[in-house]
Structure formats: structure tokens, C-alpha cells
Amino acid sequence: MPTNFGQLVMGPPGCGKSTYCKEMAEFLRNLGRNVVLVNIDPANDVLIYEASVDVSNLVTVEDVMNHKQLGPNGGLIYSIEYLEENFVWFHEQLSKFKGSYFIFDCPGQIELYTHHQSMKKIVEKLQYSGFKLCAVYLVDSHYCSEPGKFISALLMTLSAMLHMEMPHINVLSKVDMMAEFADKLPFSLDYYTEVMDLNYMLECLQDDKFTKKYKKLNSSIVELLDGYSLVSFLPLNIKDKRHLLQVKNSFDKANGYIYNAGERSDVQALLACAVGSQTESERIGIDRDLYTSTMEE
């Protein structure tokens, strides 16, 4: 019986989830992988890709808002709970594509991944039915522009990792836009991707006119994040094939696809073309120069 591998693409609104799904699907198809795109965002009524399975055929946020007199957030929560209750329908739709690689485009409502139970239960049912899954959690690089934003992004990411309880990789998206606010960045790109010593970030928080009044809270949050030491990011410019390959290698390890083989020669050829013999330090240096250098006037 063929194994179904896949990834759930999560993250806050505007972080580039749908664009990632579209571009990563094309990248994987060029490697010869049979990719199925699945939209499980009932609020996404304008897809930029062709979804083989679309939850909007079951429920939409607009219909829920009209019939249940709920707002957008309540309507989305209700819709995901409805999908959980009708998992049999969902599984039947997915079963039409056995042996494929699935990319699930998830909603952007953060509480679905930090404390609400329905998304977690849907994932558990998928895993029980034989899916080998991992989470790809996207965070917009603009969160790096302010210390408070970056710390909140780390907390948000850590909460999702602990709550969802599944193999998890984190991606710092839109790094090609970082040059636009490079003058606001107190540290280099690798500091944010590797989440280095947060005591340096704490010093920035204590100097900020808004966050400095929460000195004890800031210290406690940094201590919490350092204590878990789980969060790091892969940089992603969606048009940079080096980044796509790096992310692909990470999620293939996370969900076990790498042990399924079948496309090794193609990947090795692509690796030789895209990366060559670069060392890790050389790669980080290239990214730093490309994505965090101040834009020319």
C-alpha cells in the first residue's frame, strides 16, 4: 500500500502560505514528484493555484457567517470544527490521490495552532489513517524589524510547536524584502534564523521606549524561550532555488520522505547546480549580502 507523505503549511495571515504552496508544488513537480494541493482554509475564496481538494466544497466562512450570525473569526473556528466533524468526507477526497505528496494550505488564524483543538485532531486523524506529515510554519521576515515583534513571533512559533505535537520546521519568509528595513535590524540575518543568544535581544527590548517598562516580563519571556531552545528558522526567498532546496531537504527529513527515495538522482543533480560546493558559512554570507544589505539610494 503506497504511503501518503505531506506537509501542513501554517502561519499567521500575510506570511505567504499560498504563494509558498504554489511555488513549492511547482518545484517538487519539476523533481518528478506527484504533488496534490489541498486547500483547508474555508475563508480563502480566491486561490492562486489549482486545488485538487478544496474544503470550500464542504463549508465556507461566508456561509457560516450568514447562517450562524458569526463574525469572521468565529466563522472560521466553526468551519474548522465542522471539517473535523466531517472528517470522513475529507478523507474520502484525499483517498482519490493515494501515493501522492500532499501540501495542505492551512488558515491563518493563529489560535488554531496554539490552543484550539480541532486542527490538532484533524492532523491526528490523518496520521492515524496513514499520512506521514510535518508542519511547515512560516513567519514573515518583517517581524525581525522590531525586537518586540520578533520575540512575539518566537512565542507564537513555540506555542504552535508544542501544541501541534508533530515534526516541525520553521521558515522565515520574504527575506528578499529585508533590505527595505535593513537599517532597523540590529543584528545580521543568521542571528534571526539561528535565534542566537536572546540576551542581546533583551537589551534591545530594555532600550525600547514602549517595552522597557516591562523589564521583568521581558526577562521572563527570554528565559522561557532560551529554556526550550526549540525555535530556529530557515530563510526563504520564494524565487531562490537554493532556499527552496534547503527547505525541501528539511521537510523531507521531518516527515520521513527521504527514506522513501525514488528521486535521489534528480535531487543530487539539482543540488550540484544550485549549491555546488558551498559551505554553510559561505551560504549564510551570500544570504546576508543579498537580503540584509541596505538598498542603494
TrEMBL record:
Keyword Protein biosynthesis appears in the UniProt entry: no
Protein keywords: GTP-binding, Hydrolase, Nucleotide-binding
Stored InterPro entries: Gpn (IPR004130), Gpn2 (IPR030231), P-loop_NTPase (IPR027417)
Function: Small GTPase required for proper localization of RNA polymerase II and III (RNAPII and RNAPIII). May act at an RNAP assembly step prior to nuclear import.
Family to which the UniProt record says this protein belongs: Belongs to the GPN-loop GTPase family.
Subunit annotation: Heterodimers with GPN1 or GPN3. Binds to RNA polymerase II (RNAPII).
Protein name: GPN-loop GTPase 2
